[in-house]
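**Tokenised fold:**
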Amino acid sequence: MKQRLKHWSEQPFFKPVLAVLIVALGVGVFAMLIVTQPETVAKVKTERVWRVEAVTVNLKNLSPVVKLYGKVETAELVKAAAPKKSRVTAVLVREGEHIHPGQLLLRLDPNDFKPYLTRTKAKVEELKAQIQSEKIQYRADKQSIQHEQKVLSLLQTALKRAQRLQKKKLGSKATLDQAQEAVSRQDLVLINRKRAVADHQARLLQLQARLESAVADVELAELDWQRSRIVASFAGIVASVDVTQGDPVKDSQVLLSFYPFNGLEVRAKIPASYQAEIQDALNAGQILKAQGNAASGKFSLQLTRLAGQADARGIDGLFSVQTAGDKLHLGEAVVLQLNRPLQQNVALIPETALYDNQRIYRIDSASSRLQVLHVERKGYFKGGILVHSPDLHNGDKILTTFLPVAVDGLKVKLLD
């Protein structure tokens, strides 16, 4: 058998015939595969539906809030100073203590004030006595003028008699000279008496002016005496104590400072973007409330005025503390939530519903597709954002699930 195969393989036509057979076999196998292959079914591409959440629009008139950072201060800080040079005899409070009206806080040495007060009072009594004496003297001078006038008349009569006697050679020259001298002397006395009466009003005014000055000195001495005992005039907190018992103090040296609970204010910077809005609201008489948060807890405030100067960042707002003022401390840093002026027909939505700060997506109830709406952002309110658009209506469903692929017409389905 092997010899036959070898014989055939050596024939010249063997190789062409073998090649033809191999090609025919391959074609046959390929044709069989084509005939027996399974039929393919064309796939239909379906639209993707996004499962989302939404919020229902409820249009209201609300006040957006703005977060501010402020500091507690007061315009009613009392800095008690020494009225004059003295020495501290008692310090009865410490820094940070609460005080009540009428409470004695500090005392200076009374011996530095009593002598001056006594001396000024004595000066007043002395001047009162001088005024009384001047009035008595005035009445006496008025009465004396009539008497002096009578004396002058008598002396003038005696002078005339001496002159007649001298002419008749019956009187001496010495007698005549004496009579003339007596008349001149009495005339001078009368002139002085009249001048004293005329000057009475001027002297009285001068004494009264000195008395008023002395009374003023008494008042100053009494004021110094009162100020030597530092007494609280209101309920508040001691801000600082600058001296201790036994310290010598100079005139006008600050001894301690304190402030009232109801005199606290908070100064906070209002951004420039809200400045005009806030100013217009205050000018219109609107009351702008705020809520504060400090280390001691929450408290309420009211914006009373704006500062007199502004800068590129904005303007300082001055807030009066309405409640919990006794828990705040001067210089304390606080956080405020200022209620801005009321906004009309706004919708409250979560931050995830707002795209690029200017658009939201409404879900069409009929087609379940997104509809883009352009809105105006009005500010923050209770963890959400207030927006306004004339195209927003009560009952609209607004997309709240943030979708990076959100576009107008996107197919969605609300989650149950």
In short: Helices lie at 2-9, 14-36, 114-167, 173-198, 200-227, 272-283. The chain is about 35% helix and 30% strand.
